[in-house]
Amino acid sequence: MSFNIGKGDALLIVDVQRDFLPGGKLAVPQGDAVVPVLNRYLELAHEKALLVIASRDWHPPKHCSFRDQGGSWPEHCVRDTPGAAFAADLALPAGTEVVSKATREEAEQYSDFDGTGLADRLRARGIKRLLIGGLATDYCILHTVRDALKAGFAVLLLRDAIRAVNVKPGDGACAEEEMRRAGAVPVTYDELA
Ligand code: VGL
Ligand code: ZN
Fold this sequence. Notes:
Number of domains: 1
Number of helices: 5
Largest sheet: 6 strands, parallel
Bound molecules: pyrazine-2-carboxylic acid, zinc ion
């Protein structure tokens, strides 16, 4: 199958931040494994002149999702701290557009589209399809993919470039199944290149 990657496509890299990698404050198992794969997708994006967007979880110090504020996560991705930085080895190009989310104390925002204006920004650029990878499959990837489809974008889910938290075993697999049913097309690098 040919996916004809090019005009109208954008690469959306979700939350590949140090706190989500092994050793980080909310480490996703094997979260670091997405980095070299995403670097290959970034090379493809460069070859095909795709827009590249990188989102980041960008919490204030007392975000409601943190356990000591009554939430369910350890403190993570506090804005302007080293843990909130993108993975050091992720080869984001100079023109990468950054989307910051969950920036207000009182609101959780797992989706890159929630309150960020991202859909309109993409439409204004003529983007019709998104290649989506990053962390974590069962949270920010799931919510972002759902919203992308609802907003009318086609989605290629980069299934070799996502990893799950798996609070319950199987959460990641369930999320992948839900995204597929909703219309996301799972692909691997070799199928695209
Ligand atoms: C995420 C848990 C808490 C994510 C963000 O980026 O998937 N997960 N905050
Ligand atoms: Zn978070």
